[in-house]
Design brief:
- The protein is built from no helices and 2 strands.
- It is mostly loops.
- A hairpin with a 5-residue loop joins β1 and β2.
- This is CLUMA_CG002883, isoform A.
């Protein structure tokens, strides 16, 4: 049961190698994430869901000083 005094923070590491906090970098991949939440009983009050995510973007500078950004991926 939800109460005003209670707040839950649940963290998930959805990185490909499950090392989101490590100093290594995984190759970027494409994908999607679906969140489907079902409650045993209908909620009597509204609840808020806040989703925070981080994405690594690749920034590359070649020998001719051309800058490439992968914001599209």
């Amino acid at each position: 049961m939800w109460s005003q005094q209670r707040g839950d923070i649940i963290g998930y590491d959805l990185s490909e190698d499950f090392c989101a906090s490590a100093n290594q970098w995984s190759l970027p991949r494409q994908g999607s994430l679906r969140l489907d939440i079902k409650f045993a009983e209908p909620l009597k009050e509204n609840v808020n869901l806040i989703i925070y995510s981080e994405f690594d973007n690749l920034k590359e500078i070649d020998s001719d000083r051309n800058v490439y950004l992968d914001y599209a991926s």
